[in-house]
Fold:
Amino acid sequence: MSPADTALPSSHKAEPLSAKAPTTAFGKGFVMDSWYFVALSRDVAAGSLKRHEVMGEPVLIGRTKGGAVFGLRDICPHRAAPLSAGRVVDKAGEGETVECPYHGWRFRTDGVCAAIPSLVEDQAFEADRIRVRSYPVRESQGMVFVWMAADPRSDAAPDHEPPVFPGVVGGDARLVESMDFDSHIDHAVVGLMDPAHGPFVHQQWWWRSEHSMHEKAKAFEPRDLGFAMVRHAPSSNSRAYRILGGAPATEITFRLPGYRWEHIQVGERQVLALTCLTPVTETRTRITQIFWSDHWVFALARPFLRLGVRAFLKQDGGMVNLQNEGLRYDPALLWIDDADKQAKWYQQLKREWARSRAEGRAFANPVKAAVLRWKS
Structure:
């Protein structure tokens, strides 16, 4: 894809929203009409129902016994029992449905009510006029994504598909770690893409420290719904890369609504480190880090890598808690170039996405190619 050509195709233009466009203020609102990561495919077993929370909404993610993944609002419209506490059943003439644990109401995977067991034969009640909200769900590359629409009443199909990530190799994911941060997704996004905090927050012997800081200059260019630090050799003070051997080359990409991945190539071998950010509520964000690789080092070093990933997440989470002490006073935040340029780009991307959806036009990436310089 050409860096200069990052608008969505005309076939993906959004219909104008009748409702008021969502807020784009930093730390407020969410990127709507987007795909969010909710689970690994391997964690959604056949016949299973599991409750998730996305943007403060209860979302049931399930899989039929036939293998199809689906998403429903996890509230029965009868007496508000969570449908995820029920079961998947297969009744003659109905196909596979979700049975509410309270009164046995059954719902198809598209949300339409298939049966109300308490009704008797001569009671004229059209059960199929009742429905719960259904969410478009996709399985891709061993992950499950849910579409969060700006208008919950709309039945329109998503106008684009979930992102496809490079380097998903070596079979199933080799390493997965997840943690909830007590922050809005905006703060989680800019915290994880911040290039200057590493020497102070992550002070492991195998990474880097403030005593090894030096100036860096990295080229960036726009990408589909985001931007990338173009492929380059890792910094000399990033010791962890040395275990890969050879001459690793890495590219780091960010894409709306909250995906950041580092794709490393060492000869013919690859490593993909993907971070998925899922807004649970306005003040809680789930960070899921997933690693794939066909490099031999993962087979030997996975226990140590897991410890490292957990340490990084805990350190970032601890800093979020410290930051919250200041954020509760609602201070104005000071952004500087070039270290905070990626954070600025994220805010521009978020605003442009909301405007393009509200105006029913193609998204026009506001990011311009640039070389950024900072010390870390």
